[in-house]
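Side project, low priority. Logging it here so it doesn't get lost.
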Amino acid sequence: MKIITGSEFDAYWKSLALRSDDEKVTAAVQNIIAAVRAEGDIAVRRFASQFDRSSPEKLEVPRSIAAEAWEKLKADDGELAAALEFASDHIRRFSMEQKKQFVDFEYVMDGGLVTGQRVIPVERAGVYVPGGRFPLISTVLMGVIPALCAGVGEVVLASPPGDDGLPDSRILAAAHLAGVERIFAIGGAQAIAALAIGTETIPRVDIIAGPGNKYVAAAKRLLFGEVGIDFVAGPTDVLIIADGAVNSADLVAADMLAQAEHDPDARARVLVPSRALADQITAALERRLRTLPTAKTAQASLDAGGLIIIYTSQEEAIRIANVIAPEHLELQTADTESWIPALKNYGSLFIGEKSAEVLGDYSAGINHTLPTSGSARFSGGLSVRHFLKTVTTLRCAEGEGWEQARRAAEIIAHAEGLAGHAESAKIRSI
């Protein structure tokens, strides 16, 4: 865990090596994409044999198996099933509220000139859900429900197969709860390639959403343009702004560890106004690590990139927060409202000590698939909008506004040297 002052931050931040794609990873993923493009399902199965725990003969999972997984979960772990139902209801309600913000309209620009907008969902969306040590059950809900609320015609889910040739049973259960139409037991870069390109059995989708490892991220980056993506995700991170007035050092430590336990590359950072509070948080982290089951991963994360920054003013703290542009930004200060207007760069903002980031991860209704590695400077989190296309329309009729627009188009076309454009406008003159 590193402790620095606000005046040292800029030099520290510049010293960090910018994350760049490993050339070996990129080359490997390019080969996977080329093979899937050329061989389809055969390539997908071959890579599953290499990288996944099994290579199922049938890549598609019958919906009946997902339904059985849901019924079994309700019987074996009713508490988890109820929690997933609760979370899915919140995610659905929030997504439907988001959908209301995207509307069709027509606007009369001038006489004879009517401009408009239509909001159209994509026809087919793919949602990728990693397996790994901790199957991301909640990610199923976070990806599938917004797509369905957007009005996507068909949602396809892909998740790596286990030893039995099926995705984790809890992922299947969540998929049934969310309302997925089709499920495929495929993982890694080959899954992204198959969804983007299409194979004999795996349908080509219009957009792919969901997190994954560096191979999945590289595949999404390389295939973007051929398929839409939510964004290229990196390691998860949190930044907490704490002043000690409304919360304890122990609470800050708990939230830092909740992030650090994800992965050794996860980044947990905090901004505090004094060295005393920094030392209290360090001590609280040490106490909690002694009993945390995931302490090995969390400690590796803190050692590699854990950071406490001591700020001298609210303005300095806000500036640093906007430079970091965290995936998750927790605001645990007195008078939180005075901080909010100037905070611009974050994936999600958690306001007040009760607003734990973990609630956003699971059950509050907002999405947990968020921009990482500073990309919150220019991007927001996964939402209904990722599954919608905002297209424009134009209706024209004779009128003063139409004639002015036609003549302006003709003049601009001539200025650009595009005679055909100019003729297209001129031929319509009255």
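Brief comment: The first strand starts at residue 2 and ends at 5.
Revisit when time allows.
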